[in-house]
Amino acid sequence: MNMQSVTIARIYTMDGHDQLNEALDILRDEQKIAGATIIRGIVGFGESREVHTSSLLTLSLELPLVLEFYDEPEKVIKAIQVLKSKLDIKHIVSWSAQAYLDEPV
Asked: Fewest 10 Å CB contacts: which of 39, 44, 70, 80?
């Protein structure tokens, strides 16, 4: 098993914003990022402080979405720069991690 330093990045957005499919295409086809996942949140809030939830009583059509991806640190930094230049993405966080892989990224 190989241990490799990677960077993980997360893009926070809401359902109904068409950014994620385009971002996923950029990460997969253009930047050749090792892996990405889109996660749908059940509740969340952002800058506006408005709570978006999947509760039946207060069902929101704009649920929180997170696009998480990882790769070698240099590739993630470049991917973030490309995403920010091409899309109106405001909320991105990243951190260093260790990947335990059978094959290198």
From this structure: 39
